[in-house]
Design brief:
Layout lengths: L16 E5 L28 H12 L5 E5 L9 H9 L6 E6 L4 H11 L3 E5 L5 H8 L4 H13 L6 E6 L5 H13 L3 E6 L17 H11 L3 E3 L10 E5 L5 E5 L12 E4 L4 E3 L8 E2 H6 L4 H13 L19 H4 L2
Parallel strand pairs: 1-2, 1-10, 2-3, 3-4, 4-5, 5-6, 6-9
Antiparallel strand pairs: 7-8, 8-9, 10-11, 11-12
Helix pairs in contact: 1-2, 2-3, 3-5, 6-7
Bound molecules: S-adenosylmethionine (SAM).
Length: 333
């Protein structure tokens, strides 16, 4: 393989972080991500095998990708996920493997994931009340998510992050309890602004509960926050510490404070399409090369082509914004 140049785009952003969706299937139906009923999932033969994912990662690792995040859909519904983690952990150049999960199957799988070499876990937790959880997820499961969070801690994962999508009119009463819960358990709470990536095209700007509004709610109820150091400029969250005690709160504000200029992420969808942005309307087909006898150089060139076409920003707030046809569960969050 000759094309080992770093994945630098036309604005000089160097891409070292790959998000891999391992499935579009999920065991809940969050309204901001998926349809409720009659979801048309990809046929299994269209989903990349572990061998194909591993080969793709070996190629991009030689181009400087060193961090991976497994996501979906719900990654833990993919059979034998720890085996994929083990394969990826053995790839030279890969220093950090993380997982984003809804936590429902985590209690059963936490130990195997840890043993396989998973470094970090983010667990989605939008609400601590059953009613709100069900309103968002349109399924039951809060007790299992909480069991999953405790299991992750028990088996030794450190720096566990809890991610909550913030939705105006729904999650305001959850903000303070979630923050207190995370602090009590030594975890970082992260609030994510609701992005226009729902499957039912219901997103409205006025449903976005902004990071600023959430910060005010937390400061009024708990105490002042001060900005934390920002060691990695490409991190999507702006972190704050409490001045009156321990605890870190992160705000991911893609709608009100886009962070595209420091973005170093690319994505591989479950069926092997490469994307340079969550909001991209174009994809590059790695599976065609992986299954069609493509050489590593050709895969590398395809990834370069994708990165070179990256736009300066997602443009959610611009008048010519086009919502991607695919919803979040089909892309990989
Ligand atoms: N199923 C896993 C989970 O729930 O964490 C992984 C996939 S999920 C798509 C990844 C993250 O994206 C979750 O934290 C989820 O809440 C978030 N997400 C999904 N749709 C979103 C949207 N429209 N706006 C903001 N965040 C969203």
């Amino acid at each position: 393989m000759t094309a080992v140049a770093p994945l630098t785009d036309t604005l000089g952003r160097v891409h070292t972080n790959l998000r891999i969706s391992v499935t579009d299937r999920c065991n809940i139906r969050c309204f901001y991500c998926m349809p409720d009923e009659n979801v048309r999932f990809l046929p299994r033969r269209e989903i990349l095998t572990f061998e194909e994912i591993e080969r793709f990662v070996r190629v991009v690792a030689r181009m400087g990708v060193n961090k991976l995040r497994l996501t979906g859909g719900e990654p833990l519904v993919r059979a034998e996920l720890p085996k994929l983690v083990e394969r990826l952990a053995s790839i030279p150049g890969i220093h950090d493997i993380a997982l984003t999960t809804n936590g429902i199957l985590l209690e059963e799988q936490a130990q195997a994931l840890k043993d396989a070499g998973l470094d970090r876990i983010n667990i989605s937790l939008d609400a601590l009340t059953e009613e709100t959880f069900r309103k968002i997820a349109r399924r039951d499961g809060l007790d299992r998510v909480l069991a999953g969070i405790h299991a992750a801690k028990r088996v030794g994962f450190e720096k566990i992050r809890l991610n909550a999508v913030a939705i105006k009119g729904i999650t305001e009463p959850e903000v303070v309890p979630l923050t207190n819960f995370a602090r009590e358990h030594g975890m970082e709470m992260r609030f994510i602004e609701f992005m226009p990536l729902d499957a039912e095209n219901q997103w409205q700007h006025d449903q976005v509960l902004s990071g600023e509004e959430i910060r005010r709610l937390i400061e009024e109820a708990i105490g002042p926050l001060e900005p934390a150091a920002r060691p990695d400029p490409s991190q999507p969250a702006t972190d704050f510490h409490f001045t009156n005690g321990s605890g870190t709160i992160g705000f991911i504000n893609p709608v009100t404070q886009p962070f595209c200029e420091d973005c170093n992420r690319l994505r591989l969808t479950a069926e092997g399409k490469i994307r340079n942005c969550l909001f991209s309307t174009v994809e590059w087909d790695a599976r065609a090369l992986l299954r069609g006898g493509g050489k590593d150089d050709e895969i590398a060139q395809l990834v370069h082509d994708c990165i070179r076409a990256k736009k300066p920003g997602h443009g959610i707030d611009s008048s010519d914004f086009v919502k991607p046809e695919r919803a979040m569960y089909q892309i990989g969050g």
